[in-house]
Fold Anhydro-N-acetylmuramic acid kinase.
Amino acid sequence: MNPHLARLAHLTQQPSRRVLGLMSGTSLDGLDLALCRCYGHGTKLRVQLERFATFPYSNSFRQRLRDISQPTVSLEELTILNAEIARRHVATVLAALEEWEVFPDEVDLLASHGQTVWHSPRHQRPGHPYAHHATLQLGDGDHLAALSSIITVADFRQKHVAHGREGAPLAGYADKLLFAQPGENRLLLNLGGIANFTFLPADGGPTLVTDTGPANTLLDAVTRQYFPGRSYDDNGNLAAQGTPHPALLTALLAHPFFTAPLPKTTGPELFHLAYLQAAQLATHTTSLPPTDLLATLVELTAASVALAARRCLPEGPAQVYVSGGGSHNMTLFQALERNLPEAQFATIDTLGIPADAKEAVLFAVLANETVAGQPEFSLGKICLP
């Protein structure tokens, strides 16, 4: 038998697996690495987070990633970056393992989300002749496996799409395994480039996973545009100096995405600066001070999260656990509490997973389930060294 296949077969039978989860989101901050020990699988799963770190992208590489998320990107650049992203991620993985004094052969699996460059659920292209969902993540799994010598599970979203679903968010199954609590309605809110949540009902009923709209993607873009040298609004300090503009907020919330049925998914392909500028033109707010613009976008995120949450939360107490980069934005956090006063807010840290690490941990869990779990929860392509 191929020795890599023999090792893979052995991994399925082990009582635990050491999995390194890799996550790079639409905020393009950098690469999150979560080294996890996964004991068992399915409802018996237990996860121990051994190490976590975020390795920022350089400004020049971050700009290249922004450039390839434009409709005019060249096929040559797209092709080159598919390998380049993987190579950079491998270099980061090997450097992190060396820093952590962990040898590559002590890691059973890499779990790589990849870098999303275009997400295209069919509702974003009405009238298109191809009516299926589509999504594209770069960072080739074979490069990761070959250059790290670690079996890699990558490209998780494609099987979700192949089965007729939208390819995002993927957190629901892992969230349920890790965080469901009988007797407590839990809403696990992730504030990355796009805001999304997993609703775990107290009675153990069906899990709901959905995007709600923009989170950091527009806030970061406006910060970069008006405050040179800043890539994001640290702690929401700039937005805190502004005042939300009611007419602009109403125009932004008039987008049909916000009233579309749940669950739904979206991305920066829909919520970009052109969307914001169109709303500004319609409301004669093109001269709005930048801090007011940021304050309005904070309210947009909070209002759209509340709009979606109220459509699934039952009456009675509910607990919202926040993760992602937006969990550090206190102005946004306060806006969420103001827009959804019936819920209690905390960061996911209170459940034992650092807010910044949650998504990387979730992909480690998904890789563990792909290798050792049941077929219905198998996502991702297995790439051998």
Notes: The longest helix spans residues 75-99. The longest strand covers residues 109-120. The chain has a mean pLDDT of 92. The chain has two domains: 3-169+357-383, 172-351.
